[in-house]
C-alpha cells in the first residue's frame, strides 16, 4: 500500500486512521520470524497493517514514516535485543510516543527480553546508547530523549514473550487486544456525500475547547432532517481519540420510552467506555451506580443523539458530575429547551439550512452520483433545490428518488412534491409535532395554514384572543425549530414543515367541510358556494392562484353553520354577493376589495384584526355599537374611498390604525385622539382631510404619518404625556404652522417637513427636540423667528445625524456651523438658487456624506471637512468642466500628497447630466500610516462626461488588468493605483492584488451585491493606496533583492446565477485600464495619458467581441509638451469619424499584451505577447479599433 501524502489527520470528518496497526521492530532480529508471523496473522484477521517493506523505493523514508505513524490507530512496538542499536527504530519510537498523546494506542511487545532491560536500558540497550552518545556527542539531548522514551514505553501495559510460551497463542492475545481497541475506535459512518459537514463539525469542535479542564456540555440544535446527527458523528470521528473513553448513544428518544431501553443505553455506555463487553446492568438505579463507579475517573467524550426531554439524560449523566474533569458531552436535540436543565454553563450550536451552493451540490450528488450532471437537468435541479429549501434530508431523499429517471419524470415528480409531501420526509418532520400538547398543536397548525408571514405581535394578539396562550406556546415551537422569527419580527417556517402541518389537517377527513382548516382554493370555493361548512371549521383561506382576481358569488348563508370559525382570509378573489350572516366569533377578518356592507347583525366583539383595504365601508354602521370593541388591535381601511368621516371609535386597545389613501376622508372624530394604546397612525395621502382631533393625547403613539394631506392646515396640539412618539411625517402637507407644544415630543427622532408650501416658520420649541436624529425641511425656515425662539435649549440639534434641506429660494448656508450640528453625518442640499457651498462646511467634523442635488447655479465648493467619505453633485447645470477639473485636480493632488490619507478625494458624473459629479472620500484614521493592519484607503469615482486627464505623476499605464515595475529595497512613497472599466448591470466583484517577487497580497476588494441598472454602460474609476509601512512590510517579507518585481493586478468576476458562483469575466466585457503612480527604479520619466471617453471604449469593445483571455495592453507615452494631453469632445457625439490624435507606443520598446518581458527603454516588465508597433499617430477612433483588431487576428 502506498503512503498517503499531504493529509492532515484531523482534517476529515469521515475518517482519521489510514492504518489499523503500525509495526515498529528491528528488522534483522524478527522480520522473518515473530514479526512476520504477527503481520500475517493481523492481515488474515482483516486488520490493515503497515510494515516497513511497503515503502516505495526512492522516497524520503523518515518523512513518510512519520506521516504513516500519525495515521495509524495502534502502534505495536516489538522490542528485541538489538532494537536500541537502530537510531531509525529509536526515532520511530519517539514519534509513536508523541502520537500516544493524541489518542494512539501503544502496545509494547518484549520479545525474548525482560521489560526491565528496556526500562532501565541494561545489557545490549545500555551498550547501544553509550555508542549513540559518543556518535551524537554534539546532540546529547537527542540521546537523552531516546532513554526517557524507552523508559516510558516500557512502563506501559504490554506483552512479554518467552520461549516457553507457544507463539501462536501469544500472537492471538495481541490480536484480541487489537480487535477490542479497533472496536472502540471504530469511525462512525457520517454520510455518503458529506457536503458542508466539515465546516459545521469544526464549528462545534471550536465550542468544545478540548484544552479546558472543565466538564462542558454542547447542544446541537435544529429542526428534523437538518443534519444534527451527521454533524455529531463527524465531531465524534474528529476528536474521540483525544479522550480516555468515548461513546455515541443514538436514538435516545426512542430508547427512553421503556425501562429496558434505558438499561440498554446504560449498558452501551459502560461497554464503550470501559471496553468490558461482559458488563450487565440489572436495573436503572444499578446502572447509575455502575456509571458513577466506572467512569468518574475517566476523561470521556459522550454524545447523546436525539434527546427531546431533559429527563432522558438523568439516567446517563446525572448533573454531569459523574465524569472526570475535561470530559465533553454533546447532545443533539430538536428542542433547545432541553439544555436549560444544565444551567448557563451549556453552549448551543444551531444548525441552519444549507446555503444554495451546498444544497445544489448535495442534491446533484445524490441524483447523479457525480458533481457533473447533465446540462438538460440543471434548471429542474435548481427548482428542486429551492423546493427542499436547504434541508439535507429532503435533498438526499428526493435526489435518490430521482436518480436514473427521465426529464419528464423529474417534471412530474416536482409537481407531486409541491402538492403531496414525501412520506419519508413527513414522518421525520412529524416527530416534533407529536411531542406538542393540543394547544401547541393548534398554534402550529393555525400558523402553518393561515398566519405564516405575519408579524409576531399581530399573531400573538390573534391567538391570545383564541385562548391559545401563544406567549407560552410560540417560544416552545421556536425551541423545537417548527417556526422561526426573522430580523423584522415576521413569523415563518420551513416550507416542508408547513407542508407537513397542512398534510396533518388533510388527513382529518376526506370531506373539506369536516376539516378544521381549509386553505386550498377549490376546497374553500366549494364549501362557500355549496354551503357545506360545519362547526369543525376553525378557519378558511379563499385564495386564487391565477394572475387575475377571480369573481365569485357565494351562498348568502355560507357561514351559518361555521359557529366556531376564527379566521377568514380572502386573497385575489372578488366576492360579488352579499352575506346575510357573518359569525360574531371571528378574530381575523382579512378581506380586501369587499364591495358590500357587512350584515347588519354582525357584532364583532371578539374581532382582533380587521384588514379590509380597497373595500366599500360605512364605518358609522360598522362601529355604531354602543359597546366597546375591546379586543380590536388592528384596523386597515387603506384606499377605502367610501370613507368620509371616522366616527366615534370605541376601541381602547387599538394599536394600529391605517387610513392611508382614503382620498375622500375629511374628518376624524375627537375620540381617536384619546386612544391611549394606539402605536401607529397612518393618514398619508388623504388629500381631502381637513379636520383632526384638536388635541392629541396618544400616550403610546410611536409613528404618525400625515404626508400628502394637502388640505390639512392645522396640526393638533400635543399633550405633554406623548413621550413615545418617534417619527412624524408631514411631507407635502398643507399645514401653516406647528404648535409650540411640538416641544413636548421629547423622544422624537425623525421629523420630515419637506415640501410644505404653507409652512413659513417653525416655533423655537423645535429645539427642545434634542433626540432628533433625522430632519428634513425647507431650508429657509430652519432659523426660528426672533419672537418664537426659546434660547433655553440653544440653537441646534446635538444628536442630529441626517439633515435634508430643500428650497426654491436664494439663501445662504452660513448657519451650518459645527457647534449647532456636532453629530451631523449626512447632509443633502437641494437649494435651486444656491451659488456656493460655504467654507463653514469644512468645520462639520463628523460629516461623512454630502449630496448636492438640483442646485442649478452651484459653481464652487469653498470647503469640505476632512471626515467626508462621499460627495455627490447631481444635476447642477452651472457646474461646468472647469468646476469639475478644479475639483478633480485638487482631489488627485490631495490623494498623491499622501501626508494624510484622510484627505483622499474622488470624482464622478451623474448619468442624467453631462456635468454630474460623484466625489467620494473615505474616512481614514490619522494613524493609518502607522497601522499595519488598517484597511486600504479607497478613492472611488464614477463618471461619463466630460473626460478628465489622469495626472502625469501616474507614470505606468495599461490597457489591461495588470501593470509591472521594479523597486529597490525600499518601497517608494507615494504609491497610488488607478483602475477604470465599464460596468454592465450584472452583479460582480473585483479585487486588486499586489505581487512582489511572486508573493501575492490583496490590496483591496469590492463587490456589488445586487444588479444595478444605473451603472449600465458607464465607466467607473477607482484610485487607491496603502500605508507605506504596510507596503514596506510586503516588500520585506518577499524574496528581497536589489531589484524587486512588483505587479499590480485587477481581477473581475461576474455572478453566474445558474451555478450560484462568481466566474472570471471576459476582459472585453469590462475593458480594464490601469495607471500606477510610483517612483520606481525602472521608469524615471513621467508622462500623461487621457482617460478615453465611453464612446471610444464602445468602439473598441465592438472590435474585441469574441476575444477570451487576459487582455493587457500597456501604453507608455513620453512626456512631450507638444502632444495633446486631453482628448477633445464634442458634446458626447459619435466620435467614429472625429480626428482625434492619439499616440501609441513602440512595438519593441513600449507596449505589450500579456506579462513577462522587460521594457528595453523604461525597464517596465511587460507581457510576452504581441506589441503595438513603432510610434505612430492614430487620427481616428476607427483606426485605433482597426489597430486593436489586428492584434487579435
UniProtKB/TrEMBL annotation:
Organism name: Lithocarpus litseifolius
Stated name of the protein: TIR domain-containing protein
Matches recorded under SUPFAM superfamilies: L domain-like, P-loop containing nucleoside triphosphate hydrolases, Toll/Interleukin receptor TIR domain, Winged helix' DNA-binding domain
Annotated GO MF terms: ADP binding
Keywords: Leucine-rich repeat, NAD, Plant defense, Repeat
Stretches assigned to the TIR domain: 17-178
A GO BP annotation: signal transduction
InterPro entries: Apaf_helical (IPR042197), Disease_R_plants (IPR044974), LRR_dom_sf (IPR032675), NB-ARC (IPR002182), P-loop_NTPase (IPR027417), RPS4B/Roq1-like_LRR (IPR058546), TIR_dom (IPR000157), Toll_tir_struct_dom_sf (IPR035897)
Pfam families linked to this entry: LRR_13, NB-ARC, TIR, WHD_ROQ1
